[in-house]
Amino acid sequence: MWWEMFQVKTAVLVDDMIDTGGTITEAARLLKQEGAKQVYACATHAVFSPPASERLSSGVFEEVIVTNTIPVPEDRRFPQLTVLSVADILGETIWRIHEDSSVSIMFR
Asked: Rounded to whole angstroms, what are the CA distances from 76 to 19, 38, 57, 84, 101?
């Protein structure tokens, strides 16, 4: 239909960890093949065993977002990588446990 030319198809892949990046990169390639215009990857733990950095920076992802639960050395970073800190959520959790307050309320 005529309105399809105005649609932007954005895909977001979410995983618990990225090790070598093979599975998530192949999933992104398939999504692009099926019409996704942009693909983002999100993961909690960035293991980034070789050749993860090369795969993830190959141009298939707009952005790869991970947390700093595992340090990402400079030689494994790439332009599309964003590393988010978990410090605030850990600090809030520790404070709530110390104060005998609800932790589960943080995730509602």
From this structure: 12, 23, 10, 16, 39
1 within a domain of the structure (yes/no):
no
pLDDT tens by residue, 50-63:
999 999 999 999 99
Give the predicted TM-score (pTM) of the model.
0.86
Q: In what order do the strands lie in the sheet with 38-46?
A: 10-18, 38-46, 63-67, 81-84
Dist CA 108 CA 46 (whole Å): 25
CATH number at residue 42: 3.40.50.2020
Closest C-alpha to 82, from 71, 60, 66, 68: 66
Beta-strand runs (E) in 19-70: 38-46, 63-67
